[in-house]
Design goal:
The complex is a heterotetramer, with two copies of chain A (151 residues) and two copies of chain B (83 residues).
Chain A (H helix, E strand, L loop, with lengths): L1 E5 L5 H8 L6 E8 L3 E2 L2 E10 L1 H19 L3 E7 L1 E4 L3 E9 L2 H18 L2 E7 L2 E4 L7 H4 L8
Parallel strand pairs in A: 1-5
Antiparallel strand pairs in A: 2-7, 3-4, 4-6, 4-8, 5-7, 8-9
Helix pairs in contact in A: 2-3
Chain B lengths: L1 E6 L2 H6 L3 E5 L6 H10 L7 H4 L1 E4 L2 E3 L10 E5 L8
Parallel strand pairs in B: 1-5
Antiparallel strand pairs in B: 1-2, 3-4, 3-5
The chains are: A alpha+beta (151), B alpha+beta (83).
Chain lengths: 151, 83, 151, 83
């Protein structure tokens, strides 16, 4: 499982090339990129920060859980931190599997769960100020006790 | 006893520090520590009711009892954005 | 909309780079690759052929329908024909959108619909012979009359 | 009248040709043409009941009436594979 937090440009092509294996028939990729606006305000750039060691632990857990839960062969999760400009990739998720249904389901589950439970935050810099992006409330299992490992 | 408290995101700005070493009572819970942290800032914020807490890098409930030297991280909701 | 049928290696990185725009927050990619086995038999290579002009028309229609139906900004669909070796990409679908839900839904709808309605066939070469891959029955609207354009 | 018939995939192997120009009766339907095509091959195959037909690159029903010079493609189920 290729799970990493990086400060530089995410090497999408290399990660894709590395993950593919002869057993795979489908690769599903989610590429999260910095959008030029949020709720009508023009974004200049984003600053990402993380509780790094814990975020990496959580991402490793997600990759393992996704493989077990959806029966996919391989999962890569790479998140970038620091200042990101419009159009740059902040997070890349790649899932390789024999069949496409499992690849899609696993990829979506990973990004949806990552966005709720992995301790990474972004500060949005607008022309007229900066704000920490408002997140959704934590899932119940996160605030009420240790997250159970699935699968 | 002493615990190390880490602040992230909006909490870092609110508290004005990335981390603090705080003195809490023996067998203080996560909830007790949160009260200490909140009381030391004059600013009100609804983030105190929405944050999650990790003790030694594992999510923990408010009732978890702390131990000397624990690393307690206060985590604002992570920045999901609209799916 | 970048819709194409090609004979050479699909230029994934270039297609991805070209599609991204500042308005996008999410890019979902489906990369269909040649698997080394089918139902327990070892595959040597695949030969893809198409009713080329009609396939291209259908693919263009799918890209337009997906944009209208899911509200995504841009869709690219590229299919390769000819002899493909294990691990090579036969079809690449890329969807760019402001939000990830629509990107995932559109990408999956395109590949699922393409696999049922776009006239492309593959002959699988095994160690002990070759067979035309068995397809699923056509959807009712395909066999009973002209496909309605959606959206 | 004459129509051009294209064969793809397993049908190409079955018929032994990529295309044929066939004589059909005036106002023959797609179904009539399929009967002509099937009758000229000695080999049985269930593909005849599973194929789709495109007339001038649009999917067409069995009842569609053909016109002189139409391009009629016989299309075996496309190779979806397990999703």
């Amino acid at each position: 499982m290729n799970v990493a937090i990086v400060e530089d440009v995410i090497a999408t092509e290399a990660i894709l090339a590395e993950i593919k294996s002869g057993e795979d028939g489908a690769v599903c990729v989610f590429d999260g990129i910095v959008r030029n606006h949020t709720r009508g305000r023009k974004t200049l750039y984003l600053d990402y920060e993380a509780y790094r060691e814990m975020a990496l632990d959580q991402m490793r857990g997600l990759a393992q859980d996704a493989a077990a839960r959806f029966g996919v062969r391989e999962v890569a999760i790479v998140h970038r931190l620091g200042r990101l400009l419009i159009g740059e990739t902040s997070v890349l998720i790649v899932v390789a599997s024999a069949h496409r249904g499992a690849a899609f389901d696993a990829c979506r589950w990973v990004i949806d769960t990552l966005k709720k439970t992995v301790p990474i935050w972004k500060k949005e810099q607008f022309e007229d100020g900066a704000v920490w992006a408002d997140g959704e409330p934590f899932p119940e299992e996160v605030v009420s006790g240790p997250a159970e490992r699935m699968g | 006893m002493l615990v190390r408290v880490l602040f992230f995101g909006v909490l870092k700005d609110l508290v004005g520090a990335e981390q603090q070493v705080l003195e809490v009572e023996h067998e203080a819970s996560v909830g007790d520590l949160l009260d200490v942290c909140r009381d030391q800032t004059s600013k009100q914020s609804e983030v105190w009711t929405r944050l999650a807490v990790a003790v030694n890098r594992e999510y923990a409930s408010r009732s978890k009892v702390l131990a000397e030297g624990d690393e307690v991280a206060l985590l604002p909701p992570v920045s999901g954005g609209r799916p």
